[in-house]
């Protein structure tokens, strides 16, 4: 068979295998581009706030991560098998990896040359890769994964906990525990296999496919699979002494899996029991749920300082485990995880929607009209430090205006088009970009196209305006 035909067949079969089996069905050929004169892929995607994040020249379709963690020594051994398609003729390509020691790498079953420069891991395959080819890279690595301090002083990456660890990835933290194309614009499916000491539980995104003891009986291996595309910053691994619960609601709703640190479980059970109710409410407002399960990972507040919308299974500390925070993270499953920002400058589309979901919750459950929440946000001076769609720098890309002024933009859209049209826009937006990426320009075009209204003044004032308008 012609190499090009084989490549196309491999791609088609691999896609089928990723959906049904969580892995590739055929092995990448030893020679991916005979006679190709390729160039290195870009070492960064020039994100407005994190220009070195992500890499050019390829698109990842699947990650198979095999991890073994020992909490006592904080040692992680990992193998990352990355299935991708070349978007250019490639002589080399980069992966993002923070810390860790790389022991070996292969591309297409042949050893690849490895070079490290900061967070850039460069692989040079034996044979250059032709544009359009599907290839598989395998990286073996180990070490003590690091915690990253963001420009805004928050901590992410691999966070040690009292009895294990939890991985938080927004915006750059996932590169602390596996190599990959760590930009929100490159989403992929995942299979994450984690081995931990007996008595501990390992939780990740998606569905638990198996749980089995190792041959010596001293450790347990958990296999998790995410069949829907996921941005790497929405991945997580939680390791600890959890109280777990897995069930499908009696009404046949979305399956729920929760894992709660055993020391906080008694105090969080009542709110966790509300997840099916809140999911039904969210589906009514936002449209069909985009994933195959939902749930939460709840940690001690001393171990995790903030909540994060890790896909299908948000991570929350006990201190912020309250109804509005849970609603915020549930809404993110539609807005942020399924519809993911094209760049980090578009993050208001995630946080504005999730914050507005809190306002809607207050409206429906607390008899507080969204207009009152809007007025409160309007009167908060810190919300006027910068426009939500034009954060000044990486330190402020998740500043207060991104949340509250982002929600204010949505409320102004609601006022401009009316409730019926507004909810059609919200649900249509989630459907239009389901499992994809979208930008601020995409949203503006969508709203104006669906409403038939020119909302230039609204965007100029509330989304891009530098100063606080006199009239709310």
List the helices and strands and how they pair.
Layout: H1 3-20, E1 39-40, E2 58-70, E3 75-86, E4 90-96, E5 101-107, E6 110-111, E7 113-117, E8 120-124, E9 134-143, E10 147-149, E11 155-160, E12 165-168, E13 188-197, E14 201-204, E15 207-213, E16 219-230, E17 237-240, E18 242-247, E19 256-261, H2 265-272, H3 275-286, E20 294-299, E21 314-317, H4 323-334, E22 339-341, H5 348-365, H6 370-378, H7 400-417, H8 419-432, E23 436-438, H9 440-451, H10 456-463
Parallel strand pairs: 1-4, 2-13, 19-20, 20-21, 22-23
Antiparallel strand pairs: 2-3, 3-9, 4-8, 5-6, 5-9, 7-8, 10-11, 11-12, 12-17, 13-16, 14-17, 15-16, 18-19
Helix pairs in contact: 3-4, 4-5, 5-7, 6-7, 7-8, 7-10
Mean pLDDT: 93
Strand order of the largest sheet: 6-5-9-3-2-13-16-15
> Class by helix and strand content?
alpha+beta
Low-confidence stretches: 1-31
